[in-house]
Amino acid sequence: MSDKQNNKIKRVGILRGGAGKHYATSLQKGGEIISHIFEKLSHKYKPVDIFIDKNHIWHCGGVPINPGDLMNKIDIAWNVAHPSLSSILDSLSIPHISTPAFSSTLENSRDLLQEHIKEIGLQMPRSIVLPVYQKDFDDPRERYAIKKAKEVFEKFSSPWIVKSFTKDSNMAIHLAKTFPELVNAIEDGAKHEKSILVEEFIAGKVASVHTIPMYRGEDIYTFPLGNSFGNFSAGEKEILAHVAKDLHKHIGAKHYLKSDFVLNSHGRVYLLQIESIPDLKPNSHFSQVCESVGAKMHHVVEHILEQA
Asked: pTM score > 0.85 for this model?
């Protein structure tokens, strides 16, 4: 490859890691972005792994660096470490893809998100978070599941969805219809030593909507429904697309948003969760919805990079 060709390739620094509870997820997501750019976009972009350890020490190529050194090492940054790092990138005048701090706060705080979306007439299923069992504060271990099940039962009725509060592939997702089933589901969570999310089960049609700004001539482009369960009419699809656009704008999402919805039998839309980083694994739901509109996932990723 000639020097002239080399000069055209932009270096994309993927910031991942950092301190905090999302350290492992950040490493995984950052790794997926690195792999995707390397495999699909290496003719235009060169991924550069910027690892930030739990002691806040930055590394590039395995070598510790000062954040200021990035000016000479990358042209664009994709920050999946922590929103607060955006200010450092701004101070260095490095274009970047980052989740805005407010959007990130909403994504990671169900209570704040639930309160904020009321302003656009959107609801979430009722829920309660059960903190991980602590011997010094909770009742004897053998009584924990029953005690917490009673707390849930007093807040809202069955059926309930019971799952790990943070992603944990080792813990099953339970649908509990009776009090004994609720107790057993909470017991499973307690055994895994995880905080537990118990959520009101809303019966209805479920779908994900991916939205991206400034794509194909639209301020907010909505992809066709993905990861859907149930048959949606044309009118229902239009409703979800409209709600997804409003949500994207309302929470201040910048580069990408995935919104998971359930539409009940009365036509009411409930938000289940949001995600601000696309799933770039091969054959992901995001990949499938890109294909459904005649695009390859890496074309959409390229668009996101160009919008930095």
From this structure: yes
